[in-house]
């Protein structure tokens, strides 16, 4: 049985699924949790995998969950290694179509390296929640 | 023709255990795409091999943690494992946070384990509408054990019995008085009871209440009296590990009993009936509702009801007469 409330509000388009993950040893997940909540409120299905994830775990989970997008959060300074590794692993496993974005404490001078590695967008302190949701809505289409 | 062979190719990949193809199919099932249904038509004949275990209980009872520990236990015995973990969808935005995986991420890289989160998307029984078909997908992938974790349930989200061979009801101490144990609903569906967090106050009392409740049952189906397994603090790894083995053994024993007493068929029949019910609803009721909504008649009906010009039964009979000739 499906509640009639849902039937009335059912959207014709496909639901966006995304994953919020924290790679590496960084345990500061307040930002990631707020973002997960905000994606939920935007009507997305959000898989949250918690802290201390290896890039291998993140890539495997993203594929098992069939997400459209992985959002990586890192505040420890290890983004130069960890973010590109996730993209690489997804590509190796035939899942290069899963978009990867990043956020956290990321100095401007690292942006080119991350973009070159295939990170599609980077959000740093000061980015509004709305701007992140808008980016997702504009750039991520649920795949066929 | 090309489409046909593409579909056969997908099916072959799923049977070989390809995660990407399987998880995509599950997604298409959740989104209710017609092509996903046609895939189920093809895989249906190959289903029915896995042991499906339902794990249910109130929010925060420790379901995900138990599933995680059970995965380890089954993997030690070299069984392949699939997990479907359901979390609630927001009734307001349609969004969801699926967080059951957090407890299971240490198994993410194990190729013998496939964990998939599902949002309820408005389904009321503690599961998602796609669960039944998603179980078929994992089954065809060759997973020997499939665990289905419900949302945190209240007293009457009992749909899990329609989808599993063995139901584990997870309780924690301190949730209510002795009347709770004799109420109808979730307390009746357990094949196995777990008292989780049994190191907490009230565990002994809960144990005796459950025992007293079970003592009042005149006869158990197939002679199976649900065992009560007490599981202590997860961080106290020695005793925790032992009680998890006890739980895994009880699950295996229950399955053996179902097979021995020829009761597995009953459980499967229950699932089959639910599936055909759902399919009929999709094929008959959904098009009618869609038509009423799109033509604007649903709004007019709501108006008539609000003005008390008619009542739901009369209108339903009118619609039925018109649509079901």
Please provide a written account of the structure:
Chain A is an alpha/beta fold and 144 residues long. Chain A has helices at 4-9, 30-41, 55-65, 79-92, 111-116, 129-139, and strands at residues 17-21, 45-48, 69-74, 99-104, 122-123. Chain A has a five-stranded parallel beta sheet with strand order 2-1-3-4-5, sandwiched between helices. The longest helix of chain A is centred in the middle third of the chain and has 14 residues, at 79-92. In chain B, 46% of the residues lie in helices and 14% in strands. Chain B is built from ten helices and eight strands. Chain B has helices at residues 2-15, 19-30, 34-43, 63-76, 131-140, 203-215, 237-260, 264-294, 297-306, 312-323; strands at 51-57, 81-87, 96-98, 113-119, 145-152, 166-171, 192-195, 228-230. Chain B has a seven-stranded parallel beta sheet, with helices on both faces. In chain B, helix 2 crosses helix 3, helix 2 packs antiparallel against helix 5 and helix 4 crosses helix 7 (237-260). Chain B starts with a helix and ends with a helix. The model of chain B has no long low-confidence stretch (mean pLDDT 90). Chain A binds chain B through residues 1-3, 5-11, 14-15, 17, 36-37, 39-50, 53-54, 56-57, 60-61, 63-66, 93-95, 142, and chain B through 19-20, 23-24, 26-27, 30-31, 89-91, 93-99, 101-102, 105, 108-109, 114-117, 119, 121-125, 129, 289, 293.
Summarize the structure.
The complex is a heterodimer of chains A (144) and B (325). With 144 residues, chain A is an alpha/beta fold.
List keywords for this structure.
heterodimer; A: 144 residues; alpha/beta; Rossmann fold; five-stranded parallel sheet; 5 strands; 42% helix; globular; B: 325 residues; 2 domains; seven-stranded parallel sheet; 10 helices; 8 strands
Quaternary status: heterodimer
What composes the largest sheet of chain A? 5 strands, parallel
CA gyration radius of chain A, whole angstroms? 15 Å
Number of helical regions of chain A: 6
- What percentage of the residues of chain A does DSSP assign to strands (E)? 15-25%
Work out the strand percent of chain B: 5-15%
Mean pLDDT of chain A: 90
The shape of chain A, in one word, is globular
């Amino acid at each position: 049985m499906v509640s009639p409330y849902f039937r009335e509000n059912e959207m014709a388009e496909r639901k966006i699924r995304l994953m919020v993950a924290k790679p590496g040893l960084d345990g500061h997940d307040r930002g990631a949790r707020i973002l997960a909540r905000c994606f939920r409120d935007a009507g997305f299905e959000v898989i949250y995998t918690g802290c201390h994830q290896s890039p291998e775990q993140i890539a495997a989970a993203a594929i098992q969950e069939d997400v459209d997008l992985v959002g990586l959060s890192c505040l420890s300074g290890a983004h130069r290694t960890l973010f590109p590794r996730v993209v690489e692993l997804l590509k190796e496993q035939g899942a290069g179509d899963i978009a990867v974005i990043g956020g956290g404490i990321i100095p401007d001078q690292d942006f080119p390296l991350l973009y070159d590695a295939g990170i599609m967008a980077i959000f740093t302190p000061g980015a509004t929640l709305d701007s992140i949701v808008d980016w997702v809505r504009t750039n991520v289409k649920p795949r066929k | 023709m090309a489409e046909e062979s593409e579909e056969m190719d997908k099916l072959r990949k799923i049977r070989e255990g390809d995660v990407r193809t399987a998880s995509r199919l599950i997604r298409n099932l959740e989104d209710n795409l017609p092509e996903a249904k046609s895939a189920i038509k093809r895989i249906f004949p190959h289903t029915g091999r896995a042991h499906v275990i339902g794990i249910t209980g109130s929010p925060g009872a420790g379901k995900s943690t138990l599933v995680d520990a059970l995965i380890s236990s089954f993997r030690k015995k070299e069984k392949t494992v699939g997990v479907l973990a359901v979390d609630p969808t927001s009734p307001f935005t349609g969004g969801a946070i699926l967080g059951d995986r957090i407890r299971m991420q240490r198994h993410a890289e194990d190729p013998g384990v496939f964990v998939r989160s599902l949002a309820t998307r408005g389904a009321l029984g503690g599961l998602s509408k796609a669960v039944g078909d998603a179980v078929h997908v994992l089954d065809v992938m060759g997973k020997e054990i499939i665990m289905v974790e419900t949302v945190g349930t209240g007293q009457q989200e009992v749909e899990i019995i329609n989808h599993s061979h063995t139901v584990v009801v997870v309780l924690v101490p301190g949730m209510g008085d002795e009347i709770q144990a004799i109420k109808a609903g979730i307390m009746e569906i357990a094949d196995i009871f777990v008292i989780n967090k049994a190191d907490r106050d009230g565990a002994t009392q809960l144990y005796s209440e459950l025992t007293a409740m079970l003592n009042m049952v005149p006869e158990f189906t197939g002679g199976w009296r649900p065992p009560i397994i007490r599981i202590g603090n997860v961080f106290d790894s020695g005793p925790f590990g032992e009680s998890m083995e006890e739980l895994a053994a009880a699950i295996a024993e229950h399955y053996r009993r179902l097979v021995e007493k020829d009761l597995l068929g009953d459980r499967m029949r229950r699932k089959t009936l639910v599936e055909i019910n759902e399919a009929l609803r999709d094929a008959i009721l959904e098009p009618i509702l869609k038509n009423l909504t799109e033509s604007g008649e649903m709004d007019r009906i709501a108006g008539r009801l609000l003005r008390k010009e008619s009542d739901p039964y009369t209108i339903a009979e009118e619609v039925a007469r018109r649509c079901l000739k």
